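Amino acid chain
________________
===
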Amino acid sequence: MVDQYINQYGKRLYGLCVTLCTNTFDAHDLYQETWLKVLKNIDSFDSSKEFEPWLTRICVNTYRNVIKRRSILSVVEFQSNDDK
């Protein structure tokens, strides 16, 4: 089932990942992480609705979480360097 979604939406999802990320390495990671979350949560998908908006929301939320984690890590690193 997921293979069908990957074939149908994979290129568009990758395009979104490239648009969101600053480099191709991050885009690849986001692409993979998005599909992993889709696999994990496919049972919660409401099949009466469109798949693509659900997929897009997962991707964007995953990207936001990555940015949030990086920002928290930057603050922690800055604080730890300040203590020296």
Q: What stands out?
A: The chain has a mean pLDDT of 90.
